[in-house]
Here is the input.
Amino acid sequence: MVSIATWNINSVRLRMDQVARFLTEQAPDVLCLQEIKTVESLFPHQAFEDLGYTYRAVHGQKGYHGVATVSRIPLREFSRHDWQANGEARHVGVELLGPGQGLVLENVYIPAGGDIADREANPKFGQKLDFLARMTDWADQLDRPTLLVGDFNIAPLDCDVYDHKALLKVVSHTPLEVETLGRLQDAHGWVDLGRKHIPAPQRNWSWWSYRTYWQGKDRGRRLDHMWASPDLAAQSVSHRVVEETRQWEQCSDHVPLITEFAL
Here is the structure.
């Protein structure tokens, strides 16, 4: 068995104690982090070393974005793609070298896209769509077992948000974003593991706004995803959302996902 987790941590240095608690309690073999918000030299390497996560691939930048994959299984950095085409640190790919040897694990932080769902009025929205288009071209060329995980910043299904009709014009759930993400999924025949194991329309959310969560309103969205190549997806045996982290003190607004594979 190999277990792989993904979590938008919203600053790894600020929340390293929570990451340590999560790794201690859940013990995934590999953890993919997004929005680490630090350069590699300031990444808390020693803390991960102490927890047994000896292997790391960190693609960071100062104060914003950034991704890191930490592992108890030997790995090598495989790729860094600039799908934003502006130098931002939003992707790192690794290849597992121990158990699960040959598996490629792609860790991505797709742009949020700003507040207005209009390319002309809001360039960030256009950048998000272009990012997905570049990823789609990439996915079309893949020829080996791949796991794509991270914060996609899109809730694709009607049941992936607390109120479908209310959010149709809200960035992260607009028909244009859902359609664009669908093209990325079709380009490689990706299997959405979240919905393989927790079928629609079951509640399966990974993000709650800081602004509404404290009021006790369950206004969630499923923005974080784990997608697998078809052959790899057939080897997934379980998937869970570790929702309790959203109630920890000074927590991230996202919660982790964990998938187990019989590799």
Observations:
- DSSP finds seven helices and 14 strands in the chain.
- Residues 57 and 229 are 22 Å apart (CA to CA).
- The longest strand covers residues 2-8.
